[in-house]
Amino acid sequence: MERSQYLLDANVFIEASRRYYAYDIAPKFWTSLIDLVSSDRICSIDRVRGELERGNDELSDWAKENSSAMFESTDRKDVVDCFSKIMIWVQSQTQFTDAAKSEFARVADGWLVAFAKVEGYVIVTHEVLKPEARARVLIPNVCQKFGVKFVNTFDMLRDLQVKFV
């Protein structure tokens, strides 16, 4: 049985740090992430790191401390080529507003899908599939179009058999 490798969206880190896995409540969550990186089960990308490091908080500090192991480079021809195809598709979709298309081009989301597609990774995100979405280009909608699997944090943790004890 092939083991899934997971690629984490920025919202996984942000929601965890601000809510249910805050550093003072669940430090084991954060050490588990590092352990999972070490065993090649999870990672994220440089563009997510950039989004996390813009903050001035514990999450920003954590991202900076763990950037060498956690965050993979998207500066590769195969990823750039895939990202270009994704952007062409997004721009051609009349259902999305111009503002939604512009935001999607600025953030890490398209790069996540491209990296996951190239590497065969499963994206972990809190976003959910909404085929009717107009005001935002959602990761699951793009994943569905490009044949990329996606799950939420809790499904990933269950699949990886992570226990916080």
Short characterization:
The protein is of the alpha/beta class and 165 residues long. The protein has helices spanning 10-18, 27-38, 46-53, 58-65, 67-70, 77-92, 98-106, 109-119, 139-146, 153-159; strands at 6-8, 42-45, 71-72, 122-124, 150-151.
Topology:
Elements: E1 6-8, H1 10-18, H2 27-38, E2 42-45, H3 46-53, H4 58-65, H5 67-70, E3 71-72, H6 77-92, H7 98-106, H8 109-119, E4 122-124, H9 139-146, E5 150-151, H10 153-159
Parallel strand pairs: 1-2, 1-4, 2-3, 4-5
Helix pairs in contact: 6-8, 8-9
What does this structure look like?
Helices cover 56% and strands 8% of the residues. It is an alpha/beta fold and 165 residues long. The chain has one domain: Rossmann fold (3-Layer(aba) Sandwich). Strands 3-2-1-4-5 form a 5-stranded parallel β-sheet. Helix 6 (77-92) packs across helix 8 and helix 8 runs parallel beside helix 9. The longest helix has 16 residues, at 77-92. The mean pLDDT is 94.
How many domains comprise the coordinates?
A: 1
Task: List SSEs in N-to-C order.
Answer: EHHEHHHEHHHEHEH
Low-confidence stretches: none
What integer value in Å does the Rg equal? 16 Å
Salient structural properties:
about 160 residues, alpha/beta, Rossmann fold, 5-stranded parallel beta sheet
